[in-house]
Amino acid sequence: MEKLNVFAARLLPREDFVAQGHRACQGCAEVLAMRLVHKALGRNTIVASATGCMEIITSPYPETAWKVPWIHVAFENSASVISGVEAGYKALMRKGRYPKRKINFVAYGGDGATMDIGLQWLSGAVERGHDMIYVCYDNEAYMNTGIQRSSATPFGASTTTSPAGKVSIGQTTQKKNMPEIMAAHHIPYVATINPSYPFDLFEKVRKAAATPGPAYLHAFSACPTGWRMAPEKAVQIGRVAVETGVFPLYEVENGRYRITLETPQLRPMRDYLKPQGRFRHLSEDLIDEIEKRVHREYRELAAKVRVTNEEDRDGTRQG
Amino acid sequence: MAKRKGMEVSIAIAEAASMCNVDVVSAYPITPQTHVVEHLADIVADGELDAEFIPVESEHAAMSACVGAAAAGARTFTATASQGLALMHEILFIASSLRTPIVMVVANRALSAPINIWNDHSDVMTERDVGWIQIFAENGQEAADLVVQAFRFGEDKRVLLPVMVHFDGFVVSHVVEPIEMLTHAEVKTFLPDYAPQQKLDIDAPISMGPVGIPAVYTEAKMAGEAVLRDAYGPIVECLDDFGKRFGRTYKPVETYRREDADILLVTMGGISETAMTWVDRARAAGEKVGLVRFRLWRPLPDKDFKEAVKGARVLAVVDRHFSPGGPGGPVAQEIKYILYGQKGAPSIVEFVAGLGGRDVGFADFDNMYKKAKAVLGGATVPPFEIVQVRGGHHGEA
Question: How many CB atoms lie within 10 A of CB A213?
Fold first, then answer.
């Protein structure tokens, strides 16, 4: 595997497959993540899209931002659709009706499509072992329909269906840990990615593409519109998310956990929460509570790294 | 031509699909469809058919994967019934709008509740508007033959639409019938390899399923309407060619002993066979009665139907589903659409029978015929009647 962390920006491919001129909001880090993912994947890629922001902003007929083959069917089923595309090509190549070549079969969805309405479809597709990559672009709410809460919305965030109010702190439930759910499927590759760290993202996307079988990428996707923050802060907030431990960058390769960007000293939680209007109402006590939980989860992740990299007494690796 | 061989209809359907050299089968088990996909899985497992068998986690995923496979340019087959078809509902519209010529057999079964695994047409009749070609088989021979033809007219470049082949659950699907299967060589000459006009191809990228704003949505829907209506020609061409080659000719609308008949029964699917036997009995007793049945359901063969019922004075329509709180049975309503305003159009007597697997036998046809005959004599009857109800209709003693 090439080591992209020693790469410089000028060494990245110039070509994009998600074209400019799409209709995303200013400062959308979701479309930035998607552009980088497809820059890394290259031309030999077929994409299945869930309904959502990335679908509507790239495909207002008769325009399209897609320079690779792309299909949108419905909200919940992009993983099933790509599993069909992959199976189709597998059969056609085997039967000699299409030349044998390496194609990346990629499905994506937002957090709602992935973690709520489409969880079953994704679970089924990866369990069946299709050679596919699924990317969840997680902006932590139903942004396309107007910032309604999802199971990815973090504790304490105010959304239009979990509003902060006189007797409400906003979202009262904890964010579903989707990468862990995918890791529990024992698929060959799971990783978190973040467009604020493009080289880390590149290396993981390339690894996912090189992995036979299913791979899952969970992309931090700052949404200035829905998070009520300045559009020019989107890349910066992605960095703060990693530095505070809110969104650790890690991968799970054949059961082995590895933190790909170590953060020896986590930054205070306030640095992440304060710039975002969705957390503006939170009391100091609640912020402390959130920080404690984030730190605990970070320690749990570090423990998984230790445990899954330990050698058995007979020398075989666990995981 | 092969000899007639006794085989279970579901097995014959699976063998027919296999002879069509399908590339992808994506299916989820549901009674009474299971024998079709189990047998296909066997055929693939034995290496007799080189295909990808995708054992999906739901019918919604089955249809989603079918759309993906067909969009990749693969010949794609699936099977379902009842709740499974209902779960696919959302994706059925998209499969036709994206012009993916999937072939799906539906072992027609009642919809819940109460949950019921037996035959009626509530599953298919609630999917009339999905933009698919829909065709009904009344027995195993038809079902096996129609699967082969469905691939040909569905994949016809003038058509490129998905096709549902309907056959009744259990009373057809699980019956052992003498069936004359085509040979592989015969199918090969009749059905060319699928050559998609457009597909998801890295050498010629296209975007499928984009956003259709109000300025284009109507035109997109109109295009779907035009292609489905115009599919009639290629469908009939295909049915005729099949007849010429193999001696079994299928028509969009079939008639039985309609000559000089005052009253015509109108049926669909498996009960047509019982009904024809009943017609023979009634004819022997001197009754002037015949039968008409829809084989093709979408596109609706309105001209054929008009022609088929010409001269009849009463149509006794036997529906296998109805619209609660609405206008009765769907087949009867569509017949009214066909005949409305036509001079000398026959009267229509509507019955709903055989719900959730209740047998429709000679006695039931006797009763329905008696009422139709009363109408012929000038009597008036309720707008529609659910027959076979124990204790009669609500409001009755």
Answer: 13
